[in-house]
């Protein structure tokens, strides 16, 4: 038995050494011994490559505006581990993490001695969430974000009210496949029989695969761009505005506080799913709650402005699609300003393409190392870059403190790359920013 939160957390994180072990048998084994808590809740399942967390946030905020209590299971965390399991946007307590770990630990130990092997870190956390929402803090609905892929992801033992697949990109290619179609097949594994599926997949081949799997499961399919669409998009200083069209109807001038055109697509998926839920008994999901929920939705680490003077932006652009969206947004919003970029990434990402895009817009590029098992080293990233003004940095904390202090007023500092890196950067900057800006 663990007696402290830190002991529990250390045990959970130590399971990272087991890596990624696709498959559902370990989850099913643990759930059987817990009397299948995943069957005792109403859920929505959200998969895809980019935009999962934002879509979860938009839908959670809409549901909350309607007066519903909403659980969420998301990954990775940005500020604290506990936020991976949250109720109405509030992370569960340290004591609850400790209690849950002590419930799952004996199962993990027992499973270790079977032919299935011990559960991974993600499987442990997923199991904790199922038990929590079934037995400790019951909510009206729980939104489950897929961790990796979909078909063999540990969350894929739920039977949701609806499923959502955001846009599909080339990510985790060594595990999911190296084509849009192969990756879409894995993502489409969350489609359940007769369960509505909403998707924002843009790539024709990826959408064809999703459509094919939906037909096999006799699941009603709703596609962004065909069945519902975003029009009249307009960027605002602190967000976006758009109109949603469907079936001859529309919701005009919807406002979101998250920045980026791609966020209007994530918001549209959440709204259309909410409209479907409204028709199936969730009567509090009205136009008012949709508007209110969208406007108040916030997801950290997504084009988040940490400071206006100096202008510091963090963005978890962790793959090629994310970097593309970030570059588009920076060039649209700041066409005449110099941009300093700090970048860190995991080694298994399409680094050549990602860095090539950053090379084109950065006045200065700093590639940094950070503490994570799959993280690329700063020197590896530096050697890929063709930028004439670049540097490799091992101590990113000291570098950032110095960079912020010396940053000219007309320049922008953008810190981007792996979400695991962003989760380390944000609390560090927030802790030190007041002292830094006071001394300027």
Kindly describe this structure.
With 440 residues, the chain is of the alpha/beta class. It folds into 2 domains: 5-296, Mur-like, catalytic domain (UDP-N-acetylmuramoyl-L-alanine:D-glutamate ligase); 304-439, Protein-Tyrosine Phosphatase, Chain A (Alpha-Beta Complex), CATH 3.90.190. It has helices spanning 5-14, 25-33, 52-65, 94-112, 121-136, 173-176, 180-187, 204-216, 261-279, 287-296, 320-333, 351-361, 378-384, 396-406, 419-439; strands at residues 43-47, 70-73, 85-87, 90-91, 141-145, 162-165, 197-199, 221-223, 229-236, 239-246, 249-256, 304-307, 311-315, 338-344, 364-368, 390-393, 411-417. An 8-stranded mixed beta sheet has the order 4-3-2-5-1-6-7-8, with helices on both faces. A 6-stranded mixed beta sheet has the order 12-13-17-14-15-16, sandwiched between helices. Strands 9-10-11 form a 3-stranded antiparallel beta sheet, with helices on one face. Strand 15 (364-368), helix 13 (378-384) and strand 16 form a beta-alpha-beta unit. Helix 11 (320-333) packs parallel to helix 12 (351-361). The N and C termini lie far apart (49 Å). The mean pLDDT is 93.
């Amino acid at each position: 038995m663990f007696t402290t939160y830190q002991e529990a957390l250390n045990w959970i994180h130590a399971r990272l050494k087991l890596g990624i072990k696709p498959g559902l048998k370990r989850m099913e084994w643990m759930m059987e011994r817990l009397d299948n808590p995943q069957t005792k809740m109403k859920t929505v399942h959200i998969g895809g490559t980019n935009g999962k967390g934002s879509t979860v946030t938009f839908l959670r905020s809409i549901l909350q505006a309607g007066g519903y209590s909403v659980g969420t299971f998301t990954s990775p965390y940005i500020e604290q581990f506990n936020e991976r399991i949250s109720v109405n946007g509030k992370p569960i307590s340290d004591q609850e993490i400790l209690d849950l770990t002590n419930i799952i630990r004996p199962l993990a130990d027992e499973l270790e001695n079977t032919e299935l092997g011990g559960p991974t870190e993600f499987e442990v956390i997923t199991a904790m969430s199922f038990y929590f929402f079934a037995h400790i803090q019951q909510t009206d609905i729980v939104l489950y974000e897929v961790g990796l892929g979909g078909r063999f992801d540990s969350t894929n033992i739920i039977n949701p009210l609806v499923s959502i697949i955001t846009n599909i990109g080339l990510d985790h290619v060594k595990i999911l496949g190296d084509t849009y179609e192969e990756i879409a097949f894995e993502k489409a594994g969350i489609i359940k029989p007769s369960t509505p599926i909403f998707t924002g997949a843009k790539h024709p081949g990826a959408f064809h695969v999703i459509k094919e799997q939906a037909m096999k499961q006799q699941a009603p399919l709703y596609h962004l761009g065909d069945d519902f669409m975003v029009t009249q998009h307009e960027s605002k200083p602190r967000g976006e505005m758009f109109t949603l069209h469907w079936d001859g109807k529309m919701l005009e001038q919807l406002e979101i506080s998250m920045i980026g055109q791609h966020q209007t697509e994530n918001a549209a998926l959440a709204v259309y799913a909410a409209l479907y839920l409204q028709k199936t008994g969730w009567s509090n999901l009205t136009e008012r709650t949709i508007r209110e929920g969208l406007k108040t939705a916030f997801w950290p680490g997504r084009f988040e402005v940490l400071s206006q003077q100096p202008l510091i932006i963090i963005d978890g652009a962790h793959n090629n699609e994310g970097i593309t969206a970030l570059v588009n947004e920076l060039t649209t919003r700041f066409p005449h300003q110099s941009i300093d970029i700090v970048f860190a990434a995991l080694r298994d990402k399409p680094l050549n393409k990602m860095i090539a895009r950053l090379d084109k817009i950065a006045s200065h590029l700093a590639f940094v190392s950070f503490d994570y098992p799959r993280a690329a080293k700063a020197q590896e990233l530096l050697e890929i870059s063709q930028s004439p003004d670049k540097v490799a940095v091992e101590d990113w904390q000291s570098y950032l403190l110095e960079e912020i202090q010396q940053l000219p007023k007309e320049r922008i500092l953008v810190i981007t790359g792996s979400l695991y890196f962003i989760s380390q950067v944000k609390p560090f900057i927030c802790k030190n920013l007041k002292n830094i800006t006071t001394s300027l």
